[in-house]
Amino acid sequence: MAGSDLYVGTLDVLILKAVSWGPVHGYGIGRWIRQTTDDVLDIQEGALYPALHRLQRKGWLEEEWGLTENGREAKYYKLTPVGRRRLRAEIVRWHSYSRAVHAALEATPAHS
Amino acid sequence: MAGSDLYVGTLDVLILKAVSWGPVHGYGIGRWIRQTTDDVLDIQEGALYPALHRLQRKGWLEEEWGLTENGREAKYYKLTPVGRRRLRAEIVRWHSYSRAVHAALEATPAHS
DNA sequence: TATGATACCTCAGTGAGCTAGGTATGGCAA
DNA sequence: TTGCCATACCTAGCTCACTGAGGTATCATA
């Protein structure tokens, strides 16, 4: 798997968004991110699973074992209420940040 | 100074952009980033100066001592040709990445 | 039968950024 | 003249997210 070369810190909001419509298992979260970003972001499993545990430890995700469509055991994650608030905050943060970077990258010659 | 809570990896492109019109000293680079982003990004000096040394070590920046408008000694940084190519690549990377994240954050319920 | 996809995991190492210090100069206000 | 803020540079220790590389196990399919 090719590395996705993440900007460190952006993975959390992607994971939280991935589970915002209901429980999804880890492997499915990785697939969802890859698919909705047209293969631009391909999260390494060595980044994904520790991140899930981290978000769970912080109280933003809850786990629950279940069965996939094809009858496999899988650990489903869902948002806690705190996690949902966090998702909203992280989306705001991302938008503010990306607007700021865009402004810098599209700036014309310095005025000082 | 309030931390800007950078997405790790985004500082390089900001620095390269800051010096893309001519030599700027470190302190001025920090100020430029803060100003062009309306105070959204406020780079810590403990992040800025090591980053400048790193980019110089990689051959993307060159240093040169000079005098500021107010007669102070300051270390001016300017882009090398390699640094300019790198700037273009990093801008492409940022746009691709931010488009991908936007796509994910604005996605509607999963289709699987 | 073996290969790839699914589904999970850990661990060592890297390295960027944060926190918190430090030096020195110049200008300005109390 | 004293003290403080802005300018201008720096380092060191720490944290911790991610990379890269490994591992287990099941199931479908070629």
Find the biggest chain interface: A-B, 37 and 37 residues
Percent of residues in helices of chain A comes to 40-55%
Mean pLDDT of chain A: 94
**What is the C-alpha radius of gyration of chain A, as a whole number of Å?**
16 Å
Parts with pLDDT < 50 across at least 5 consecutive residues of chain A: none
Task: Give a concise summary.
Chain A is α+β, with helices and mostly antiparallel strands. Helix content of chain A is 51%, strand content 14%.
Can you characterise this structure?
2 copies of one chain form a homodimer. The first copy, chain A, has 112 residues and is an alpha+beta fold. The first copy, chain A, has 4 helices and 3 strands. Chain A has helices at residues 11-18, 26-36, 45-57, 81-105, and strands at residues 24-25, 61-67, 73-79. A 3-stranded antiparallel β-sheet of chain A has the order 1-3-2. Chain A is elongated, with a radius of gyration of 16 Å. The termini of chain A are far apart. The model of chain A has no long low-confidence stretch (mean pLDDT 94). Chain A binds chain B through residues 5-10, 13-14, 17-18, 21, 24, 28, 32-33, 36-38, 40-41, 91, 93-94, 96-105, 107, 109-110, 112, and chain B through 5-10, 13-14, 17-18, 21, 24, 28, 32-33, 36-38, 40-41, 91, 93-94, 96-105, 107, 109-110, 112. The structure holds a DNA duplex (30 and 30 nucleotides).
